[in-house]
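Hi L.,

You mentioned the student needs an example of a multi-chain input paired with its predicted structure. This one should do, with 771 residues in total across all chains.
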Amino acid sequence: MTDKSHDPNQMTGAAMIVRALIDHGVQHVFGYPGGAVLPIYDEIFQQSEVEHILVRHEQGAGHAAEGYARSTGKPGVVLVTSGPGATNMVTPLTDALMDSIPLVCITGQVPTHLIGNDAFQECDTVGITRPATKHNWLVRDVNDLARVLHEAFYVATTGRPGPVLVDVPKDVQFATGTYHPPRKSDVHVSYTPRVKGDATQIRKAVAMLANAKRPVIYSGGGVINSGPEASKLLRQLVEATGFPITSTLMGLGAYPASGPNWLGMLGMHGTYEANMTMHDCDVMLCVGARFDDRITGRVDAFSPGSKKIHIDIDPSSINKNIRVDVPIIGDAGNVLGDLLQVFKAEARKPDIKAWWQQIAQWRARNSLSYRKNNDIILPQYAIQRLFELTRGKDTYITTEVGQHQMWAAQFFGFEEPHRWMTSGGLGTMGYGLPAAVGVQVAHPDSLVIDIAGDASVQMTIQEMSTAVQFELPIKIFILNNQYMGMVRQWQQLLHGNRLSHSYSEALPDFVKLADAYGCVGLQATKPSDLDGAIKEMISIKRPVLFDCRVAALENCFPMIPSGKAHNEMLLPEEANDEATAKAFSGGKALV
Amino acid sequence: MNQPASAYFLEERHDPNETHTLSVLVQNEPGVLARVIGLFSGRGYNIESLTVSETESQKHLSRITIVTTGTPMVIQQIKHQLDRMIPVYRVVDMTLTGSSIERELAMVKVRGGGDHRVEALRLADAFRARVIDATTESFVFEITGNSSKISQFIDLMRPLGLVEVSRTGVAAITRGPEGM
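Structure written out for the whole complex:
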């Protein structure tokens, strides 16, 4: 600071931004410089408390920040320039909004006198990102900047977490004003998220749970977002009630996959036992999940005989898709704590032996089975081996989107929360590689693996260069079947096997590509090579691109066909041509 | 409330639509109206009428009155979605309070002469519409009331030489001593 004033809180807007990051405990920022953020980059250059991770594309910065946030519980911070910098952030912001990930994105903007003039690299950033953020701000006066930045962190991390964006014109970055550290009055007076659940509703819920004959707990990403305490309480509740538990894609790890009451994931590619338990239950306890269409299947046939309890911090999630009987608005961890206390004081473990016997029969269908093959690596087998060989290690998994993502969810067992980073709501191909970069920045000594597909990984492959520059030893485990597997699967099932543009004719040689980026390339083509290659990958302390050549035409089962109910699953051994054609008839228009 | 249709259910079954008037108290900050309108267009909700103006300039409070239609489940969603916006203080469903007053103002321009002119004046008097501008061949009437009264007046003016109408949209307030 060249300011001659003696007041240490007098500083430029750019300096305020860096100061606010420090005051909020931010250690890492993911970003990409450009004209409209140069004053901020100049401040970053002159300090050492905040480390800047330079990505190769702004979308990479956003997903890296998401991975960082999801694996730490802290907000991810992004700094990008105006215009294209901001528009490239739209995908990760929307992704974070759908999956409730706290992000604080700071964008540069053209100087205030040029706003609205179609200036170079100008765009209506707050207008474009309004539906992609939980809230956003354009700061026109440097004296508003400190308050807005503190408010931004508060809004991103409280209530239902989500992405926020602060757009700062370049003249505001240069202007001098008064900074103040975070204080209570910085919070928007109209923003008061509810944390504690209503005691009467909790009592009602406990009474229903205590009298259940066929109960199920269905947990989601809200339990992870609430923090490690919520997962602990969820486990205690399962223990105290003896109930079976399933989870959404976003909720994996809240209850350990090795736990005795675990049914596996539910939904479109969930296990038979999880979906049948949901369909036939008499009491459903939904914690921090939102009954989205990948979970419910056909809504008018969704769990028709059950009373439903729904714990969610967002009132707009209640009764949005499925009508529930006992809504409880509040933070998952907070409500679970109260619920557990009341249950222990007033209820006894109900006798549900008959229900468990029924579940055992469903489990015996072994819905994740696949035929073994000694010549070709099956993708399911590859994930299973990856899981076995990383067991006991300090491992974080990210994924891209598609078949590999579902196989990872089905075959990789998560024991702890915050270990699984995937794009659930938006389904963003290209999420996993930059997310792994973010996770590795937060956990430099851990084993961070992106389970990828050959198509998805190419969407953000340039971030390998980031991993090399910052010595982040991420492992990109590509299940390479040369197809956009999930697109092809839907074309096979719903579009008469016309494989329109789902085959990658000209894939790069991933091993050579790794070499070009200055990281390590590995390949496995036979099941007998797989274990050795995976062990080698784990032992290498540098970024690795692992080209795992898998069976080209394998499809992801079990599956609830579009428009069908939970009890109309198609199991792998039943998926012959005739059964498949019948199961998928009439669902073409659906997603 | 019945379970609505979804992406997985093509034969849509609808509950009957209801019309509700919502009062929304918001922080009057830049973009707040865009947020509210964006919510309605982005999620496919209907806006029948929308009125907005600052009501307490000291506290920077604005009041938005929205008339919307939808199934009971959609109306409930709209209220929750509005309520969770950061600059929104309160959302009150005036239709559910059961005792709200709704008013709209319209200015109605009518052109004509002879019997039509006399008839227009007579009807305006019956509807308690005021003449706020007159020429030898036209009137502008100002009429206040609920929306259906205004629509009725406009329909009556049509054969008498209706030129154009400017309506404010609905403003609403509850009866009795309590505020929202």
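You could point out the following to them. The CA atoms of residues 471 and 521 of chain A lie 16 Å apart. The mean pLDDT of chain A is 96.

Best wishes,
N.
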